[in-house]
Amino acid sequence: MGIGSVQEVLPPVLDSTSAPPSLFDGTTRMYISYTCPYSQRLWITRNCKGLQDKIELVPINLQNRPTWYKEKVYPENKWNSFLQAPSLEHNNQVRGESLELMKYLDSHFEGGPSLFPADDPAKREFAEELLSYTDTFNKTVFASFKEDAEKEVGAALDHLETSLSKFDDGPFFLGQFSLVDIAYAPFIERFRPFILEVKKYDITTGRPKLAGWIEEMNKIEAYKQTQRDPQELVEIYKKRFLVAPLATH
Q: Known Gene3D superfamilies for this protein (predicted)?
């Protein structure tokens, strides 16, 4: 799928020694971490809309982040050494929360296909349900990394499998590719290899719709441009969940 096929050279990561950009100068900026799933949601949406030339990426070093980000850009930022709640600098305002920012990009910027089913009430309602469920899904899987919760994780994954069967006009959650797929993709990208290595369990076993969805997602150029090496993600999760105390977002 040729969505977001524009290639770009990624800017270097900024740390505590880096000078801030010229804030509130009319430039639209997206503050992210290259390794954070919440940031990746926004990054994928930007790419799908073909907004690489309109929205500048500002990647932040999570282990050594610049103080100016919290002090001058986004004081409300929620973060730890593994997560960077993304933010968007646009029209001299800074906005946060990844799900809301995805919708904001889709509705406030021209370019690329619409990623939300505005003209289909049934799909729109189901989209909202699935977007609301992302937090429950993620927390269920995260909790299983620290405790024996295979039954709960299986039920959460089965819910995704069932959801992928609701519409038959394509392999995605709403049939056609949408913000819902973008919301789940960064987490599935991390959960699958981590669970496979640590728990010796493939989350797609017995879930052909989910397996097909992952295959189709991996064909989308706008998403592929944001992906990290699976082993890198596994090592990050090992440090977070098998060594450090459970972090919250």
A: 1.20.1050.10, Glutaredoxin
Q: Tell me the domains of the chain and their CATH numbers.
A: 29-108 (3.40.30.10), 121-241 (1.20.1050.10)
Q: Are 95 and 87 in contact (CB under 8 A)?
A: yes
DSSP secondary structure, 51-74, as one string:
-TTTSEEEEB-SSS--HHIIIII-
State the burial class of residue 63 (Cβ atoms within 10 Å of its Cβ: 0-12, 13-18, 19+): exposed
Between strands 93-96 and 56-59, the pairing is: unpaired
Measured from the Cβ of residue 90, the count of other Cβ atoms closer than 10 Å reads 20
**Which of these, 148, 240, 226, lies nearest to 194 by C-alpha position?**
240
Q: Looking up tokens 């906005």, which residue turns up?
A: 95
HSE-CB at 78 with a 13 A cutoff on CA atoms is 11
User: C-alpha angle 209/189/142, rounded to 5°?
Assistant: 100
Q: What is the pLDDT along the chain (249 residues), one digit of tens a residue?
A: 556 566 789 999 999 999 999 989 999 999 999 999 999 999 999 999 999 999 999 999 988 889 998 888 888 766 555 566 789 999 999 999 999 999 999 999 988 889 998 889 999 999 999 999 999 999 999 988 877 767 889 999 999 999 999 999 999 999 999 999 999 999 999 999 999 999 899 999 999 999 999 999 999 999 999 999 999 999 999 998 887 444 434
38: Cβ contacts below 8 Å, ≥ 6 apart: 83, 84, 85, 86, 98, 186, 249
Q: Which two tokens stand for residue 192?
A: 């699958």
Q: Are 71 and 12 spatial neighbours (Cβ–Cβ below 8 Å)?
A: no
State pTM to two decimals: 0.92
